[in-house]
Design brief:
The complex is a heterodimer of chains A (111) and B (113). By secondary structure, chain A is mainly beta. Chain A is built from no helices and ten strands. Chain A has strands at residues 10-14, 19-24, 32-38, 45-51, 56-58, 62-67, 72-77, 86-93, 99-101, 105-110. In chain A, strands 1, 3, 4, 8, 9 and 10 form a six-stranded mixed beta sheet that branches. Chain A is globular and about 40 Å long. The two termini of chain A are 13 Å apart. With 113 residues, chain B is mainly beta. In chain B, the strands form two sheets. In chain B, strands 2, 4, 5, 6, 9, 10 and 11 form a seven-stranded mixed beta sheet that branches. In chain B, strands 1-3-8-7 form a four-stranded antiparallel beta sheet, with no helix packed on it. In chain B, strand 7 (64-70) and strand 8 (73-79) form a beta hairpin. Chain B is built from no helices and eleven strands. The chains are: A mainly beta (111), B mainly beta (113).
């Protein structure tokens, strides 16, 4: 249930497995990145963020990795649960609040 | 209060109507945003307000007119829309200084008929 490096529009994993969701960003001047989770009928929900001067940041069950050399961002979810099923977006933020969202990945967690 | 509240949740309007979308937050955030999201697509930035002043307009057609009456409120005035403007309109807010993420509302589902 993992994919490394390649952005996939959909990802299906078994409950309890780890998930890796990938994102490529476009602007090397972006200095802040955010991962969002969007459930059906709701707005995006902040999960975790990372600044461009970092390459890794951990939260509760989630880790974000940033590779500025190849302009790649990944979100790792440990012990994926059915409640993690949603669409996940990365967003790159330039100065002054200009943000660009990547194409989302729909994560489906099978019980 | 850690929410962004958007009203109405659903709106159907004709192409000759004038309507307004409203957004409110009481987190003391001084940056507020409007996004447009089409089905199965990522949100697209439309406008950014910083300290109640328009700082970014992403070449949005003039039939969309934003307004920020005070630091807690953000409106989006709609006039003479087209059916292709049907989408989910999301409001978000954040601190001016990056690092705290953005808080999004649940959006207004707009249908133009």
């Amino acid at each position: 249930g993992e994919s490394v490096g390649l952005h996939l529009p959909t990802l299906s994993v078994q409950e309890g497995d780890n998930s890796i969701i990938n994102c490529a960003y476009s602007n090397s001047a972006s200095d802040y990145f955010i991962w969002y989770k969007q459930e059906s009928g709701k707005g995006p929900q902040f999960i975790i963020d990372i600044r461009s001067n970092m390459d890794k940041r951990q939260g509760q069950r989630v880790t974000v990795l940033l590779n500025k050399t190849v302009k790649h961002l990944s979100l790792q979810i440990a012990a994926t649960q059915p409640g993690d099923s949603a669409v996940y977006f990365c967003a790159e933020i330039l100065n002054a609040g200009k943000s660009t969202f990547g194409d989302g990945t729909t994560l489906t967690v099978k019980p | 209060d850690t929410e962004v509240t958007q009203t109405p949740k659903h709106l159907v309007m004709g192409m000759t109507n004038k309507k307004s979308l409203k957004c409110e937050q009481h987190m003391g955030h001084r940056a507020m945003y409007w996004y447009k999201q089409k089905a199965k697509k990522p949100p697209e930035l439309m406008f950014v307000y910083s300290y109640e002043k328009l700082s970014i307009n992403e070449s949005v057609p003039s039939r969309f007119s934003p307004e920020c009456p005070n630091s807690s409120l953000l409106n989006l005035h709609l006039h003479a829309l087209q059916p292709e403007d049907s989408a989910l309109y999301l409001c978000a807010s954040s601190q001016i200084r990056q690092g705290d993420g953005y808080t999004f509302g649940s959006g207004t589902r707009l249908t133009v008929v």
